[in-house]
Amino acid sequence: MTVDGVAGRAATGRRVTGRRARTRANLLRAAFSVFAAKGFGHVSIEEVCEAAGYTRGAFYSNFAGLDELFFALYAERAELIAEQVSSALALDGPDLDVPAAVDRVTEVLLLDRDWLLVKTDFLVHAARDPEVSRSLLEHRARLRRAVADRLARARGHTELPGVLGTAEDAAHAVVAAYDGVTVQLLLDGDVAGARAWLKQLLTALLTDGSTEPAAHRRG
Amino acid sequence: MTVDGVAGRAATGRRVTGRRARTRANLLRAAFSVFAAKGFGHVSIEEVCEAAGYTRGAFYSNFAGLDELFFALYAERAELIAEQVSSALALDGPDLDVPAAVDRVTEVLLLDRDWLLVKTDFLVHAARDPEVSRSLLEHRARLRRAVADRLARARGHTELPGVLGTAEDAAHAVVAAYDGVTVQLLLDGDVAGARAWLKQLLTALLTDGSTEPAAHRRG
DNA sequence: TGTACATCAGTGAACGCGCGTTCACTGATGTAC
DNA sequence: TGTACATCAGTGAACGCGCGTTCACTGATGTAC
């Protein structure tokens, strides 16, 4: 038994029961679908509640407003993605197999178009609010660090080309390539093509070009 | 004198007077500022009209709704940018000076953060509407073609690295790098840093890495 | 060039809907013994 | 384990604001002669 009793107690002193946690999770899950389908700017609280099967009162019992829910949604998913990327990079032994690692990371990053849609909505939001953009920048920094660490551990095996000399620069370029391919994917909806194209780009950025991979063609 | 009389006549048969054209331009100009400042999803027709100094009736006399105005706004600016990029690429003689061309194109593409904000709003819109995305894809194809043509004309002078063998691939990579750097710029607001970083990325993509440029550092 | 006229662009008031926000209430959930 | 009780989560109705949309009207603009 905890001091606070079986159900636990949040920082506010409010008792957090199972029911409450379930409702919150249901609202978040439903909101994700609605945001992905219609875009943050075109979604009402009413729609989220309807999709989740609650009344608007339930919403206000759990969130101060749409912005807060949107932020919580982003934080939750971003955390998940960051963990998956770290896992994908940790799979190799001490030696880095660049093509294999590129494949694994690409699969994780371009797994879910809905997430890319929501993330881009969030970007648009962040671009006008320093508070929000800080959170997004931290997420990106975290991804970058994971990539840079992995590259640094493997230096000597695969030398980076001259223009992107440091592992930090290379990791930065990886994220930029990811963002660039995301835009293309959002427009043409071709997930398989986007993955092939991202692999090709990452290979171009991380190798000196002397090793020609099997050509992936885009649709 | 035209057959239609001094004032001209639109396809609908409606007489297009100077006054009407001016009002439309004023609404578009004001809308651009408002969209850039608040984001498409948070803008009302009322706000646009107030910013432009008209009543809502004037708005409906010129546009069917916010979407139509937004689309017109995008088309107008995209056309402008496409022309500027073409000009920037046409400046060299028959030989291509890669670093100089990269510099000029970078200046044009990352000139105006407000435009990048509006363009990203438009992307979010397009990602959920094939009709709209077609227009954005066409704009991108146009930029790509301009770059690819320039590269193709210059082949032999500057050999592309192996992984991005064709001029089309290289042009595609240029656009992806532009999009990637745009995201970074939207988040940190550092225009100068973004330009330096885009130059570095483009150099890495378009050269074989043997030519080390003066190192640009990001903020 | 000037005037009389027809048409059109933009006005501003009015209507009503969608939805954000609140709140008294109920029954679900966890607690104490 | 079972029961009585207290508290809290979610309900659903109500209120009212913001704003999209319409429209009869006016005065600005272009046309005819």
Structure description:
- The structure is a homodimer of 219-residue chains.
- Chain A is mainly alpha-helical and 219 residues long.
- In chain A, 68% of the residues lie in helices and 0% in strands.
- The first copy, chain A, has nine helices and no strands.
- Chain A has helices at 18-38, 45-52, 56-62, 66-90, 98-109, 113-126, 130-154, 167-188, 191-206.
- In chain A, α5 packs antiparallel against α9 and α8 runs antiparallel to α9 (191-206).
- The relative contact order of chain A is 0.09.
- Chains A and B meet through α6, α7, α8 and α9 of A and α6, α7, α8 and α9 of B.
How many runs of DSSP E, i.e. beta strands of chain A? 0
Question: What oligomeric state is this?
Answer: homodimer
Largest interface, C-beta closer than 8 angstroms, per-chain residues: A-B, 55 and 54 residues
Helical fraction of chain A equals: 55-70%
Count of helical stretches of chain A: 9
How far apart are the termini of chain A? 59 Å
Q: How big is the Rg of chain A?
A: 21 Å
- Helix/strand class of chain A: mainly alpha
| Order of SSEs of chain A | HHHHHHHHH
Could you tell me the mean pLDDT of chain A? 87
Q: Uncertain regions of chain A: pLDDT < 50 for 5+ in a row?
A: 1-13, 210-219
Largest sheet of chain A: none
**Percent of residues in β-strands of chain A:** under 5%
Shape of chain A: elongated
